[in-house]
Amino acid sequence: MAKRKFKNIKDFGNPRKSERRKYLETMMADMGLTSLSELSPEERRRWLKAARPSPMVEKKLREMGYSIHSNRNKRSLGSKERSGNILGLHKVANLSAASADVTVALREFISLLKRKTIHDISKFQRIISSEILQDKDFDSNKLKAELETFLADNEEDVVFLKFYIENLVQKASKYNSEYLKSTGVFDRADYGTLEEIMLSDQNLEIKIGHSDRDKVALIQQLLESLGYTLQIYGVDGKFESETENAVILFQQQNSLPVTGTVNAQTFNKLITDPKPLPVESRREHKRMLRQEQRGQGARSDAPRYHGNLQNIDLVYSGVDLDNASSMLSEYLVILDETASELGGRIKITSAFRDSYSQARIMYNNYKSRGVGSSRANSYLSRLYVRFPRISEIVNIYSGSRNKEDKIKAVEEIVETSWPKGGHRGGKSIDIRFGNKVKDILIETQNLATVDILQESDHFHVTIKSLNPGGIPSGHVRRFS
C-alpha cells in the first residue's frame, strides 16, 4: 500500500477533510515533515495521539470556539491563520504525551520494588510529587540522588535499578520541560534587564547544572533564534547536554574557543553580530536530531569532527565518526592533541551505531563465547545489566532462529526500549589497547569529563562534558 503524502499547507483548508486531519497536517508542516513515514513508530503514535485530542485539548478547542469533529468552523483549525493557536494545542499534546511517559516509567519502577518498600511508599511519593515535577527549579540530579538514597535506606539493589532510576528521572525531566513551556514561565521573564546584567559580567560562566533558570532560558532563546535548534527539550531553563551541544555548535560556527560553556566572550557574540547556523546546515542539523531520536544514523557529505586528526586511526572503514555528537567531535581534537604530546596513537574500532549495528555487535560478541553457553549468557547479562529486557535478548541469541532473524528481533528491542546514549547517541568510541593509550586517555580526563571502561580487549570511552572534574583523572572502571 503506497504511503500517502501530505499536501502543501495552502490546501489545508479543504472542507472535505476533517479538522483532525487538517490539524495533523498543519503540525507536520510546521515541523518540516511531509509524511508520517518519516517518523519512528513511537513518534508516529504520538503525533496521531496529538491529533486525537485528549479531554484537555477538547476543552481548549471549545474555549477557542472550535470543534475537531465537524467541518462547519468559520475558519479551519489547520489554516495559516490558526498557526498561533495550533502552537498552543501542540504544547498541550506534548505535555499529555510527557505525562503518559512519566506515568509508565513510574509504574515500571514501582513494580520492581520489594513489597516492604512499597508499603512505605509515602516518602517516595513526596520525592516525586507533582509539585516537584512542576517546579521551575526542578533539579534532575537532586531527584536522582534522593531516589538512590530512598532505595538504599530500604535495602534495595541500587545497581540493578540504576537504569530504571535514570529512565524515570529522564522522563520526569521531560515532563518538567513540557510543563514549563506550556505555562509560559520563561515567556514572562524580563530578558532586557537580564541581558544587560549578563553583558556586564566579565566572569560569566554558565554551563551544565547552572542554577539560574532565567539566564539559561535567555541563552536557549538566543540559540533557537539563530537556528541552533533544541529539538527535544526546547527552551526550558535547564542547561543540560542538549543545550551544551547547541553551544558547542555555535562556538564552532563563530570561531570561538569550543568549551560548551557560555562565558563573557560567547555571550557577547550571541548578542552582538552572531553567525547563525547556515540554512543548509540548519536543515541537516534538524534532520540529524530527528534521526538521533529514532536511533538511526543521519549521513552527511563531510565528517562532523574537526581538524586534521594526525594521531587517530579508524581501524575499520565502517567506523562512523560522521555522526559523532558535537561534544564527541571536540573531544576527538583533545584526544588527538594529547596523543601527540605523549607520543602515542589512538586506534578507534567503533563509534556511532544505529540499533541494527548495536544488535549485530552484541550478537557477534555473544557468538564468539559459544551460543547457548553459560559463559556467553553471563557475559551479555553482566555487560548490559543496566539495560531493560536483557534477559529477553539473551534468550533470543541462545535460541534456534537464524542469525539475521535474531539480530532483527534484538534491533526492535534496542530501538524501542534502550536509551539513546553511548554509541547510539554518538557519545562513545571504542579504542584498541596499545602503547601509551591508557596514559593518553587518563590525561584527557584533566581536560574534560571522560568515562573510561576497560573491557577485555579495548577501552569503551564516553564523553560526558567538555568541562573537567566530573570524573577524577585516573578513574578507570574495569569490566571483568
Q: CATH-wise, what's the superfamily of the largest domain? A: PGBD-like superfamily/PGBD
Q: For the record, what CATH class of the largest domain applies?
A: Mainly Alpha
Mean pLDDT over all positions: 78
Number of domains: 5
Please report the number of helical segments.
20
Principal-axes shape call: globular
Rg computed from alpha carbons, rounded to a whole number of angstroms? 24 Å
Distance between the termini: 50 Å
Under CATH, the topology of the largest domain can be stated as Muramoyl-pentapeptide Carboxypeptidase, domain 1
- Estimate what percentage of residues fall within beta strands: 5-15%
Tell me what the CATH architecture of the largest domain is.
Orthogonal Bundle
Q: Which parts are unreliable, with pLDDT below 50 for 5 consecutive residues or more?
A: 1-16, 80-89, 294-307
Largest sheet: 6 strands, mixed
Describe this structure in words.
There is one protein chain. This protein has 5 domains: 89 residues, no CATH class; 72 residues, no CATH class; 102 residues, Orthogonal Bundle (Muramoyl-pentapeptide Carboxypeptidase, domain 1), CATH 1.10.101; 94 residues, no CATH class; 68 residues, no CATH class. The longest helix has 29 residues. The strands form 2 sheets. The chain has a 6-stranded mixed β-sheet with strand order 3-4-5-7-6-8, with helices on one face. Helix content is 50%, strand content 7%. The protein contains 20 helices and 8 strands.
Topology:
Layout: H1 19-30, H2 41-50, H3 55-64, H4 83-111, H5 115-119, H6 122-127, H7 130-133, H8 140-153, H9 162-183, H10 191-199, E1 205-206, H11 213-225, H12 241-253, E2 262-263, H13 264-271, H14 279-294, E3 312-314, H15 326-342, E4 346-350, H16 355-367, H17 374-383, H18 390-397, H19 403-417, E5 428-432, H20 437-444, E6 449-454, E7 458-465, E8 476-478
Parallel strand pairs: 3-4, 6-8
Antiparallel strand pairs: 1-2, 4-5, 5-7, 6-7
